[in-house]
């Protein structure tokens, strides 16, 4: 099992989750609680303020209403109180001075009370006198109805401000009779004050209303005293009344006619100067209409209502000393609650400021906590990394044979992957002439497997060699996209699926000169850019190893294993039915052979330019067969068989393991490849063969009767044939991982990746390049 697949069951993530909750969750929850608290306080304050404002508004409107009622009463007081006073004053005057008393009282009142337009006095005998303001000046006009030969006439006397007569006039009365007028008929038989309907006063064209009261003089003649009050001044008073920013007031009589109020001039214009048509218009005065309807149903008092999404406060109050007049007032609730909204907005603004500050503080707290946690984690990682590096160096230091060229230094690549977090780590040794790199060891941390023996020539990866020659540690995040490492990625990294590459040249000393003696490569190393000093330590150790082992490697690289035991083996056997050869003796016998080396040479049909196939091929095939026989004898191969387009060569078919079998077969493969290449080239034929090798146990024995035929079968034979069939190019020698492990110290290989074989599973494939 790979180390990446190992899970520690004792690891506990609860601590990390709790820490994140304390560092992030608690500040966030605190901010939310602050928001909820501020929002609740703001809403409660708004509701409390609004309720208080509405209550205060109603009280204020009641006070305003009382004030308006009082002012209207005072406005009409000239008629009400004046009528009562005149009734007593005039009725007790002697008949001879009744008119003079009326004139004196009326003149005084007209000078003192601006809203009074005129005074009437009529009796049951048809007499009529009038005092009114002079419409053309500031004086008074006295009018008396007189009877002449030609009928009734009006005698007018115009007085200036000092009471002097300016001029007199007379004009026909046109049968005017005061006893037929509404102000007279309504009051003659009534003890209390009577109000007539509003009328347009002829002289001033203003709307007036008349209050009249009956009185009886000492001469027992019934008279009616009347006062005309101007409603235009009352409307001006109501228009000038500041109820609220958008509040208004209006006065209606008992029949619903408008007496005075807001925009009274428009009401008069709309009615065409007809007082009977001066009523509320639902289109232009809908709010007053709603209040008046509620008044008629519920009576006087406060009548709040809503219209078009806006709240209004309506008030209705009857006016005393009038004939059922009612005062209506309306005001939008927003006029009085605006400061509450303003207060709410200011509270919201302050709340937002508080929330922003709270969020900022919470963010700073969380950020500080996270930074503290990151620093602690960084310190923990740094300490753990330091401990890991110390442990790795200690492991390297105690490894036996680290500087011995005959032993593998697997601990170096293993510790490199563990410390740097790399997927794969490789150690490459530079050949003395600098033309090639040989992989001493390649460790794959995912599968925890070692490999080596790969060879890279400068011609194949020239840009990569230039990068190594530069002598600096370089990390390339995308090796395939960088021209310096693209060729290395194609040959070495692509099969493993790695992406990034760290190149650490190994600088050593050769004959007193400092030069590049090798290179360390790390694939997908997460921490390599931060561990330059560790890589330099390991590269120094590898440089010492290469320096100490240089002479040993040079002296042994061409040495062959001891083959003295192979000379006692039986002579090579050939398939007698296909290739003629001398008979052999000393058979190895039947059974299981523990270390058989099998080589399969697969030929394909050549492409010729004419039909003279036999004349071309038969001599060539005969020459190849003879060379195969010579090579088989030279390297003491056990058997050579021909099967169709295939040659099967075997070595090591003995009961006891033969350590030289795989080496002898590899030498035979190199010699056979060179011979075939030379013969085919001489015949002007492109290479038409590929070679596959495997090494391992196999079953074998002689079959049949005389002549007996030796046959070998098993997984080793099958895999050798698969290697020959799957060779990447013609003329190449493809071998299994077992052959690679047995020959890696003496031959150069290139990795071909992985392959799948039925019943055998997945394995790695290599190409045998040449001898070291």
From TrEMBL:
- List where in the cell it is found: Cell membrane
| Residues of the Guanylate cyclase domain | 600-724
| Record-linked InterPro entries | A/G_cyclase (IPR001054), dCache_1 (IPR033479), GAF (IPR003018), Nucleotide_cyclase (IPR029787), Sensor-like_sf (IPR029151)
Q: Does the keyword Cell membrane apply?
A: yes
Bilayer topology annotation: Multi-pass membrane protein
What Pfam families does this protein's entry cite? dCache_1 (PF02743), GAF (PF01590), Guanylate_cyc (PF00211)
Quick check: keyword Glycosyltransferase in the entry?
A: no
User: Keywords for this entry?
Assistant: Cell membrane, Membrane, Transmembrane, Transmembrane helix
Which SUPFAM superfamilies does the record cross-reference, listed alphabetically?
GAF domain-like (SSF55781), Nucleotide cyclase (SSF55073), Sensory domain-like (SSF103190)
Protein's UniProt name: GAF domain-containing protein
Main localization category: membrane
Transmembrane annotation, as ranges:
21-43
């Amino acid at each position: 099992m790979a180390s990446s697949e190992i899970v520690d069951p004792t690891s506990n993530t609860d601590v990390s989750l709790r820490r994140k909750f304390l560092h992030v969750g608690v500040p966030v929850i605190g901010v939310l609680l602050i928001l909820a608290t501020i929002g609740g306080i703001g809403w409660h304050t708004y509701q409390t303020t609004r309720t208080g404002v509405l209550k205060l508004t109603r009280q204020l409107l009641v006070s305003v209403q009382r004030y308006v009622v009082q002012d209207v009463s005072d406005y009409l007081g000239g008629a009400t109180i004046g009528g009562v006073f005149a009734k007593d004053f005039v009725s007790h005057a002697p008949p001879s001075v009744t008119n003079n008393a009326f004139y004196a009282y009326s003149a005084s009142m007209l000078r003192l009370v601006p809203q009074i337009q005129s005074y009437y006095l009529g009796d049951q005998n048809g007499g009529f006198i009038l005092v009114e303001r002079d419409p053309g000046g500031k004086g008074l006009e006295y009018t008396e109805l007189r009877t002449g030969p030609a009928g009734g006439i009006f005698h007018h006397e115009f007085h200036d401000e000092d009471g002097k007569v300016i001029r007199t006039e007379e004009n026909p009365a046109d049968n005017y009779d005061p006893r037929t007028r509404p102000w007279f008929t309504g009051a003659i038989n009534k003890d209390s004050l009577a109000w007539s309907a509003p009328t347009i006063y002829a002289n001033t064209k203003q709307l007036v209303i008349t209050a009249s009261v009956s009185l009886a003089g000492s001469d027992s003649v019934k008279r009616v005293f009347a006062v005309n009050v101007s409603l235009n001044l009352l409307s001006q008073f109501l228009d000038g009344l500041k109820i609220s920013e958008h509040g208004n007031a209006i006065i209606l009589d008992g029949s619903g006619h408008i007496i005075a109020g807001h925009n009274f001039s428009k009401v008069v214009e709309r009615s065409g100067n007809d007082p009977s048509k001066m009523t509320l218009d639902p289109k232009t005065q809908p709010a007053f209409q709603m209040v008046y309807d509620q008044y008629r149903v519920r009576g006087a008092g406060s009548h709040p209502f809503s219209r078009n999404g806006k709240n209004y406060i309506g008030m209705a109050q009857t006016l005393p000393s009038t004939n059922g007049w009612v005062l209506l007032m309306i005001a939008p609730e927003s006029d009085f609650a605006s400061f509450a909204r303003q207060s709410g907005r200011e509270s919201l603004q302050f709340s937002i400021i508080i929330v922003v500050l709270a969020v900022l503080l919470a963010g700073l707290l969380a950020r500080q906590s996270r930074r503290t946690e990151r620093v602690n984690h960084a310190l923990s990682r740094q300490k753990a990394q330091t401990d890991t590096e110390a442990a790795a160096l200690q492991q390297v230091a105690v490894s036996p044979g680290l500087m011995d060229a005959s032993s593998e230094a697997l601990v170096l690549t293993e510790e490199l992957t563990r410390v740097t977090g790399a997927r794969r780590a490789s150690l490459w040794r530079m050949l003395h002439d600098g033309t090639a790199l040989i992989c001493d060891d390649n460790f794959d941390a995912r599968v925890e497997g070692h490999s080596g023996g790969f060879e890279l020539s400068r011609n194949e990866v020239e840009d990569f060699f230039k990068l190594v020659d530069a002598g600096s540690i370089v990390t390339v995040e995308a090796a395939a996209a960088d021209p310096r490492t693209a060729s290395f990625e194609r040959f070495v990294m692509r099969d493993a699926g790695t992406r990034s590459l760290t190149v650490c040249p190994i600088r050593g000393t050769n004959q007193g000169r400092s030069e590049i003696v090798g290179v360390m490569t790390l694939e997908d190393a997460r921490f390599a850019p931060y561990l330059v000093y560790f890589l330099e330590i390991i590269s120094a150790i590898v440089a010492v190893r290469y320096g100490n082992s240089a002479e040993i490697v040079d002296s042994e690289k061409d040495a062959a294993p001891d083959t003295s035991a192979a000379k006692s083996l039986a002579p090579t056997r050939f398939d007698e039915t296909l290739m003629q050869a001398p008979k052999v003796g000393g058979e190895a016998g039947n059974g299981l052979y523990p270390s058989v080396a099998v080589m399969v040479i697969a030929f394909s049909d050549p492409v010729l330019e004419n039909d003279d196939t036999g004349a071309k091929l038969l001599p060539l095939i005969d020459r190849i067969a003879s060379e195969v026989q010579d090579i088989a004898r030279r390297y003491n191969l056990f058997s050579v068989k021909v099967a169709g387009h295939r040659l099967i060569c075997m070595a090591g078919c003995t009961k006891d393991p033969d350590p030289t079998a795989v080496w002898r077969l590899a030498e035979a493969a190199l010699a056979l490849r060179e011979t075939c290449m030379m013969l085919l080239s001489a015949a002007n034929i492109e290479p038409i063969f590929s070679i596959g090798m495997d090494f391992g146990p196999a079953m074998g024995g002689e079959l049949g009767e005389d002549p007996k035929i030796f046959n070998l079968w098993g997984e080793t034979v099958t895999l050798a044939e698969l290697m020959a069939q799957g060779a990447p190019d013609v003329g190449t020698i493809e071998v299994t991982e077992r052959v690679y492990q047995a020959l890696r110290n003496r031959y150069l290989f290139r990795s071909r990746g992985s392959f799948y074989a039925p019943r055998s599973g997945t394995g790695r494939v290599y190409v045998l390049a040449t001898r070291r």
